[in-house]
Each structure stands twice: as C-alpha cells, then as structure tokens.
C-alpha cells in the first residue's frame, strides 16, 4: 500500500507556541514547540492508519536503548500501549512535504540563531545544522482505556548515515471523542503542566532536548498517533 497526500499550496506557517500563555512559562520559555490543527484531513488520518495496518499487526510498545532490533524491552509500568513500526521512505517524504511549510525556521540552524537551543545548550552549538527530512521510521501508537506513556524526554537519534534527530513530530490520527490521552508537558519540580489534546488531524512538533512530557492515561476510546523525527545533518565547515 502506498500513501498519497495531495499538495496544499499557500499554507500559512503556524506560530511557535508562546509558553508565556501556559503554566510552564518559566521552565520552557526558550523551547521550541508548535501545535497545528487540521494539517491532515480526517480521510488522510484514516489512510495513515490503514497504511500501518496493511501488512503488520499491533504489538506491545517497547522501550528502546539502541538502534538494533533486539535492543528493546517491554515495560508496561512505564509505557503501556500498542505499536506498529513501519520503515517507509515514500510515506515519510510525503508527510515531510506537508509539514515543511510550518518549520521554515528550522531549515538551517547556526550558532546564534533563534532556535540554536534545539541542538544544544546556549553557546555550545557547533557548525551548521541543515534540515534534511523526516525519519522513515514511522512509529504508530494505539492507546486504549488504561494505556499511557509516563514522563520522559525523547531520545536524540544519531543514525549510521550521519543524520541526527532533534525535533519530534506527532500526528494525532484517532477520532474525536477520546477521553484522556493528552500529551502533557511537565515541570516536574514545580508540579505544573500543559496539555495538548489528541485532536484528529492535529500535529504537535517539539524539540527533543529538555522537554519533559507524558502520554496521559486514556479513559475512553482509542487514541492513535504517528510519531517520527525531523532529521538534520551537521556541517562543521
């Protein structure tokens, strides 16, 4: 099965999340995140789920500690959901083209640029980081009642071909009416939080470095998401 997404010309770029409007202003005021509603139609969301289910069955989601297939384990106290992993260059390219107009500020990141902290701590970025696409590793997740993903920061991948992940893409695919299941950003010390609800067609984009978040317990319905990474290449020239 092949994914087809029709082009959407003249998209108005979504603004970066203004953390000052949230309870986490002090914690994440220099962190990058965006919430984009209706970036994918209901029919496109259904097609993305169908793509995952076309040749693979759902299985318990694992925790990874490396890139090899065996470097994983299931820990339902920490991560309790179902997953399909699909490696699909064509689908990743199509999704990336839909998202690209909204991440123009990330096309090239250099020392001193507005979002250099996506790459490293202030003053520590080396070279130029160029956005090169979406990771073809598409992680589909299905959360039923009682499923969750406890507090964590997303891992920063470094692939053998030199590509590096620094930004997470999460597409909410499930039907409206799910109760619970928000992606919750945390200030664990101050016990403050900000929720992004799993609205169908919504895309959540956020930096991987230092942003603590969780998938809150689903109370009712099925929450479907598709997660991948924006990939960069670092040039020291």
From TrEMBL:
What Gene Ontology terms describe where this protein resides (cellular component)? endoplasmic reticulum
Q: Which Gene3D superfamilies match?
A: q2cbj1_9rhob like domain
Annotated InterPro entries: P4HA-like, Pro_4_hyd_alph, Pro_4_hyd_alph_FE2OG_OXY
Q: Which Pfam family is an annotated match for this chain, by its short name?
A: 2OG-FeII_Oxy_3
Q: Which cofactor(s) does the record list?
A: L-ascorbate
Q: Where is the Prolyl 4-hydroxylase alpha subunit domain?
A: 31-231
Q: Which top-level group of life is the source organism from? A: Eukaryota
Q: What is this protein called?
A: Prolyl 4-hydroxylase alpha subunit domain-containing protein
């Amino acid at each position: 099965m092949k994914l087809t997404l029709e082009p959407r010309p003249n998209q108005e770029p979504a603004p970066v999340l203004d953390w000052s409007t949230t309870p986490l202003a002090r914690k994440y005021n220099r962190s990058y995140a965006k919430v984009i509603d209706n970036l994918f139609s209901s029919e496109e969301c259904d097609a993305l789920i169908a793509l995952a289910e076309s040749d693979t069955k759902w299985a318990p989601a694992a925790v990874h500690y490396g890139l090899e297939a065996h470097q994983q384990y299931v820990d339902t106290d920490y991560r309790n959901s179902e997953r399909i992993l699909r490696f699909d260059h064509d689908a990743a390219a199509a999704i990336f083209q839909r998202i690209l107009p909204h991440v123009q500020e990330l096309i090239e990141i250099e020392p001193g640029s507005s979002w250099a902290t996506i790459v490293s701590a202030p003053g520590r970025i080396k070279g130029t980081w160029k956005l090169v696409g979406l990771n073809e590793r598409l992680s589909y997740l299905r959360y039923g009642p009682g499923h969750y993903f406890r507090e964590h920061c997303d891992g920063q991948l470094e692939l053998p071909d030199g590509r590096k992940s620094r930004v997470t893409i999460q597409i909410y695919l499930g039907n409206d009416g799910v109760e619970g299941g928000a992606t919750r950003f945390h200030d664990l010390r101050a016990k403050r939080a900000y929720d992004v609800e799993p609205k169908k067609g919504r895309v959540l984009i956020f930096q991987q470095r230092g942003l603590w978040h969780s998938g809150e317990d689903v109370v009712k319905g099925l929450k479907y998401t598709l997660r991948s990474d924006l990939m960069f290449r670092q040039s020291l020239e």
